Please model this.
Amino acid sequence: MANENWEKFSNAFSDAYGEGRSDQQLVFFEGRELGGVDTDAPRIESALGTNATLTRTRDLLGISNPAHRQVRIDKGMGLKQGSLERAGQLIGTVAADLTQDHSRELWWLLNAPQAVGNVAQEYALNKVNPALYGASPVQDQGVSIRVNPDDEELAIRHNLIDAESGRRKRGVGIQRDARTGEYVYNRRNFKPGHVAALSIPTGVAINAGIGLLNPLGGSGGYEAVLPSEGDATKTNNVLGEIAAKYILGRTGGLLPYEEFKKVRPDVSKGEYNAYKAFKYDKALDYDITDGDVNLIPGGVLKGTVDGIHGPEVQFLGRSLPLTTTAIPFATALAGTTLGASPAIQRRLGLNPKQTIRNAIAGGVAGLTGGGGAGYLLELERRRRNDEANQKYYDSVNIE
Model:
C-alpha cells in the first residue's frame, strides 16, 4: 500500500516537474484563442498566465480562466483528483518553478523603469480598450467561417489558411462559438507591432528623464557612460555610448562638485553631498519625517522629497524626478490611454478604425504637454533654490 501511494505521489511529481515553459505557453495561447482574443497579450498577463505556480494556485482556488483551465485539462495538465496525486503535482510545480526560474521571470520583467512603464501602459490600454489585444470571428455573408472541411474554400478565399498546407495565416486564430459550440476562425483586430508602438510616448518620457537620450555623453551635471579624457561630459565613442544606454540602461555618474556647479549653480555643496549620501545609501529607512525613504533592501526602491532634482523616486539606481520624468510619463500614459478609448473617440468624432493613430497622437500630445509643464516647474524650482542659497550666503557674509 505504501509503495502504491508513493508511486502515485512520485508520478504526479514527475509529471509536473517535467513540464516546460513551452507547455505553459501553448496552454496560454490556446486558452486565449478559445476565449476569442489574440495570442499576443500584454506582457504582465503573459508572464502571469504562463507561470504554472500561479495558474495551478488559481485552479485550486477555482478562480482561473475557464478557457485556460479547460485547455490544461485537455492536455493532461489539469489538477489531479486524488489527494496524493495533487500533493505530488503541486510540489513538483513549485520544484519546477525553482529550477526553471518561472517566478523570477516576473522580477526580470519589471527590473527596469522602462519595463515598469511598458507594463503600466499595456495594462491601462487593455483595460480601456480590450479590443487592442482581441480577435474577432471572420464572417462570410454574416455567418462565421467554421474550422470545417465544408468551409475550407471559404477559409482560403478569406486568406485564413494556406491553400496548399492548410496552415493558418499570420494573425488567424480559432475560437469556440458560444452559440453553436462549433470552432470558427477569428482574426486579430490589430497588429501586435502597432499595439507595441503605443508605448513609445511613455518610453520616451522615462528614457529622457533618466538621461538615456543623449548619444554624445552626459548632460545636466552627469558624466558620459564612456567619458573622453578631455571632457567627462562628452564621449569619443558614440556607438558605445548609445549601446551602453539603450542595451544596458547605464548612465554616467555625477560630476565632481567643482564641475557640477558650473552646470547646476542652484545646488549648494551641502545639497550635493546630501544627495550623494542618499543615492548610495542602501540601508532600510521607513521614517518619512526626514524626507528620505528606502523601502527595499539594497536601495532597490527609495525616494526623497528634496534631492538635486527636487522630489524623486530612485529605482535600481535610476533617478526618476517628479518634474522631468513622473509628470511627462503620467501625461503621456493618460494621453495614449484616452486616445485609445472607444468612448473618447466617439465623443471627439474620431474614426475608431484609426485607434492606433489616435492613441499615438494622444500620447505625443500628453508627452509634449507634460514634458513642457515639468520642465517649466523644474526651472522655477531651481530658480527659487538658487535664490534661497544666495540669501543664505549673503547672510553668512554679512555676519
User: Anything to note?
Assistant: The two ends are 93 Å apart (CA to CA). The mean pLDDT is 91. The chain has four domains: 2-109, 135-188, 191-210+257-399, 212-250. DSSP finds 17 helices and nine strands in the chain.
